[in-house]
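Support reply, case 0932

Customer input (verbatim):
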Amino acid sequence: VVFWGTDKGEIKRADDVKFTQNFARSMSLADALDPKNILCYEMNGTGLPADNGFPLRLIAPGWYGIANVKWLKRIEVRDQRFVNQFMGRDYVTLREE
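Our regenerated output:
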């Protein structure tokens, strides 16, 4: 399951080609369906502030903060592992299965 945010980062390839890519974080279907996960739209009884991820933020207890995707715009279920620049190199989490 891939959680896509609206924020983007600049990617520079080895051949000096630059492009932007939306931030996305993925987890297995079993992890995504964990009932402890929250799709947060408010905080302390008021709307979620922009700095905290308005309009929607994934909160995944037990995961590193980078998995708590801010500014969530899309949730996509895939049948193959998702790897992009952020998942494949910059923010890799290795977990014992």
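We compared this against your earlier run and they match. Two observations from our side: The mean pLDDT is 85. The CA atoms of residues 66 and 91 lie 8 Å apart. Please reopen the case if you see a mismatch on your end.
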